[in-house]
Design a protein that fits this description.
This protein is mostly helical. The protein has 15 helices and no strands.
């Protein structure tokens, strides 16, 4: 069914979007968001004890797989915004219909990724890895792990429409259950069964396929019609264009960072993998408040209540900054301990000590940036997000890390680029929030 079909009227809670309502949406989202990167951290720790080459292989292969995660995040965010506005306008059926079309897109994209990885894993791994042995290991891991892409993207689409209709319990149970299963399978497959690096990849595929299947089942039960609607899918792709460009800028940055880190040696790329995965973990945990903002801001603007949307924006900005500072305190306290959870290699520990001050210092600013990302995505102000991200990447991050490569600045130079990327976005996002130009009411934008 399309959004133009006969609506089923609902009364979403857009008039009471205070701290309690934000927490009701954010806390389950926190578990959902943290589940995947937490599993990646467990995976990194398990593989890290196999040696520096397997750790470097997961770093390279995982960076390529982050392309699928990026597309999934893009799909979830775009679907949340569109579904939330329809839910706010009182049409839950149209909100669910957005999930149907997003799931068709997810399935098609996931199958293409899984097939493409079988041929492209080798060239990609050799392009990113400085060590040929690590590149071969990364390619083998990637060919298996990519088979989970359809399930990963179906889960992302499912999370998107469920967040739009402010349903948080089922996504929590599905994602948490699938990742607990995989966290148990990973060490068992890697060590007692002796599958090594292959066991890590298989555990990834199991988690993603199980999660995608359960989200698909939930959609079948909720939707009035399941057939594909090309016109609606085109609209979703058009609306998601700016998010796509924004996401491509992120991926160019992180792929380049891994490639440059690999040029400084196996120990450097291993330390970069540890710090980067911890950064992703903190970022997605901080994004829990942003998820609540997407849903509440979209619903408030869909219901024509700009004042409620601005109030949500103010609250989540403060919450994001406080949460980022809290993560910074924890990271600083664990500077001497946390790298040892992932590897016993002294060279990796030495490189991690270079990265850590950057990692700690950037977290409070990142908390505000991620919160405001959620506000603007929920408001449909993705054109501004696109422009800010492109400017930050082209004028900050990418020049800094390639200068680091040219002049041998090491991981400190790579993470200085990440700092510049964060600071430029921080200034531009705060200015936009204060201007209130993003608070445009109505079902569509």
């Amino acid at each position: 069914m399309s959004p133009s079909a006969r609506p089923s009227r609902t009364t979403p809670p857009v008039s009471d979007a205070g701290a309690r309502r934000i927490a009701q949406l954010a806390l389950p989202a926190l578990v959902v968001l943290a589940a995947e990167p937490l599993y990646v951290l467990v995976d990194t720790a398990v593989v890290g004890h196999l040696g520096p080459v397997p750790l470097a292989a997961v770093a390279v292969g995982g960076t390529v797989m982050s392309l699928a995660v990026w597309i999934g995040t893009l799909m979830a965010y775009g679907t949340t915004g569109r579904a939330a506005r329809r839910f706010g306008a009182g049409d839950r059926a149209a909100a669910v219909a957005e999930g149907v079309q997003a799931s068709w897109l997810a399935l098609g994209a996931g199958v293409l990724m899984a097939l493409g990885a079988q041929a492209g894993a080798g060239p990609l791994a050799h392009l990113l890895a400085g060590d040929p042995i690590a590149a071969e290991a990364a390619a083998g891991w990637l060919r298996i792990a990519a088979l989970g892409a359809p399930g990963l993207l179906l889960a992302a689409a499912g999370n998107g429409w469920m967040r739009g209709v402010q349903e948080v319990r089922r996504p929590l149970l599905i994602v948490l259950g699938a990742n607990v299963l995989s966290a148990i399978l990973c060490p068992v497959l890697v060590y007692p069964l002796g599958w090594g690096l292959t066991g890590s990849a298989v555990a990834n595929v199991v988690a993603q396929t199980v999660a995608g299947g359960f989200f698909l089942l939930a959609l079948v039960r909720a939707a009035r019609a399941l057939r594909p609607r090309p016109q609606i899918m085109v609209q979703q792709l058009t609306v998601g264009r700016d998010l796509l460009i924004r996401g491509a800028a992120f991926q160019a940055c992180f792929l380049s960072a891994t490639a440059v880190a690999a040029r400084f040696g196996v120990a450097a790329v291993g330390a970069h993998q540890i710090a980067l995965q911890l950064w992703f973990f903190c970022a997605l945990a901080l994004d829990a408040v942003a998820i609540a903002a997407q849903s509440l801001v979209g619903a408030a603007l869909g219901a024509g209540d700009a004042d409620a949307a601005r109030d949500v924006a103010r609250r989540v900005t403060v919450a994001g900054g406080v949460a980022g500072a809290g993560f910074a305190v924890l990271a600083a306290a664990g500077a001497e301990v946390v790298p040892g959870w992932f590897t016993s290699d002294a060279g990796v520990h030495a490189q991690a000590a270079i990265v850590w001050p950057w990692f700690v210092g950037l977290l409070p600013f990142a908390g505000v940036v991620y919160a405001l990302d959620g506000v603007l995505i929920g408001a449909g102000d993705v054109g501004y997000l696109r422009n800010v991200t492109l400017a930050s990447a082209l004028l900050g991050f990418l020049p800094a890390i390639w200068l680091a490569h040219a002049f041998g600045w090491g991981l400190g130079g790579v993470w200085a680029g990440l700092g510049l990327f964060t600071f430029v976005r921080f200034g531009a996002m705060v200015w936009r929030w204060r201007s209130a130009r993003w608070a445009v009411v109505g079902v569509g934008r």
